[in-house]
Every structure is written in C-alpha cells, then in structure tokens.
Amino acid sequence: MEPEPGIGVSKWDLDTPALCVDLDKLDANIAKMQAHLAAHGLGCRPHAKTHKCAAIARLQLDAGAVGICTSKLSEAEALAAQGIDRICLTTANPSRSKVRRGMALRARCPGFIQAVDEEQNARDLSDAAREAGVVAEVVIDVAVGTRSGIPPGAAALGLAQRVDTLPGLKLLGILSYDGGVQQVAGFAARRERALANMEASVRTLEAMRQAALNTALFRRGGPRPRDTRQGREHPEHRQQGKAPAVHPRLPIRNSRVSTVPVSPATRSRTASGALAGLTHR
User: Which residues, including other chains, have CB under 8 Å from residue 78's CB and lie 6 or more apart?
Assistant: First the structure.
C-alpha cells in the first residue's frame, strides 16, 4: 500500500492547497472545550462541518464528546464509514431517497440520530424505518428565528406528540440552533441575546415533559457556545454546537476556522494524513 501523500514531508514542501494541523494546539483546544463544558454539567457534541475529518472527530470523541453532529446525510455516511458511531444529523432530511439512505445508515450505525421538523417527514421516516427493520431515534428541530425547524410552543409540542405515536420512531428530545447570535458584537450583548433566544425552546421542552414525552436530549447549539455558559440554565443534557479545533492561530472562543480553500475530499484526505503522520513536538 502506498503511503498517504504528505506524510513525513515538511510543511514547507507541501503542494497547495493543503490543510495543516498543529496537533499540540488541536489537542489543547479540544481538551479545553471539553473540560469547560464538563465543569458546567454540559455534554459536548461538536459539529463536524468545522473540520469534515473523521480523524479529528475521533479525537473529540476520545476526549469525552458524547457524539458528533453533521448537517448533511452524506457527511454522516462518510463519518460512519470511518468508524464514527455516534452521529446526530441536525437538519431534517425530507427527500424520500435520502430518508431510505438514512434508515440504511441507522441499521449500520445504531448511534445515528435524525432531526425532524414537520409531520409528513415524520411519517416518511417511520415508514422507512419499518421497511428497514429498525426503530429510528429522532429529535424535534425547534426553530430559533427562521433558519430551520418548526416554531416553538404548540406546533413543536404537537409534532413531538405525533412522533411519539409513530411505530418506527423513538423520540429523544429537541435541538435548537441559534446561528444569528454570532453577529452580535460584544460578550454581554451576545450572551443576553443567546439566552433570550433559547427561552422559547426551553419552554417547549418543559411542555413536552409535562406531556410525559421523552426530553432526555436537549441539544442547544450555535457559534461560540462557550460564551453563553452561565445564566438561565436548564437542568437538561445539552449538547453544544461547534467546538474550535483546527486552526493553530485561533483562540479558543472563536469557533470559525480559516484555511486555504480545498475540496471536501482533499480536506478529509489531507487532514487525516496530517494526523497520521505528524508527531507531537
């Protein structure tokens, strides 16, 4: 077998574009985020769209993350093929063909969780699960603003109650993503808005509990989740969004990653090669 391209080569001799990872800083960032969230009783489920690399996802899991998130089914399939077995697909998957692919993935990967935000999609998921001989674990995507998901309150509660009756599905709880809060300048203002924006989702979770629905999982995500670590806390298992991991010059509180543009395939291959070939200095 030929060695991975780039292993053992000085970074100054690499062809561009190439994604280079400083393992010392990567490990330090992962450990710092994990320790901070654990100290506040929060589970960490980093989003793989930050790195799109199974090797980095494995480092995050080994450090104590409860799982990994993906935006697309193809990302979940790629990670599962590399042995990542705790994956949450954070956006609804309405296409009939992708619904069937999702159930095939669930059959191979029992730790695969899917989001749902409307009743027809829930029925399609249940039917496909029964055809595949599995029970699919799902979470209700509860909207924060207009990015995605079903509105909080009565609509989300009604969907959760419907999901709870479908034979092919098992309701785990909810997820909410506040993408717009990253545009708010200043820590105090950003924290206040992030907490205020999540109140409706918290009330929805309380309504689900009062209706005797499963609320074991409350995934609250968004850019800079570490910024909103204190305040009106809700005593549920929370799985945070993006965790900074890759770029060696980024501070821990900035979740955005700046790299030379590369294709997803090249990014995954190069990063995996770097992780396999570099040694700690």
Answer: 54, 268
- How far apart, in whole angstroms, are the C-alpha atoms of residue 239 and residue 251? 21
Strand 112-116: give its sheet, edge to edge. 68-70, 87-89, 112-116, 136-141, 169-177, 217-221
The rounded distance, in Å, linking the Cα atoms of 231 and 247 is 30
Give every residue of the chain whose pLDDT is below 50, as ranges: 225-281
Q: Shortest CA distance to 7 belongs to which of 245, 279, 247, 266?
A: 279
Q: What is the pLDDT of residue 2?
A: 61
> Residue 169: in which H helix or E strand, if any?
strand 169-177
Say whether pTM exceeds 0.85.
no
Strand 217-221, strand 136-141: pairing: unpaired
- The single-letter code of the amino acid at 174 is I
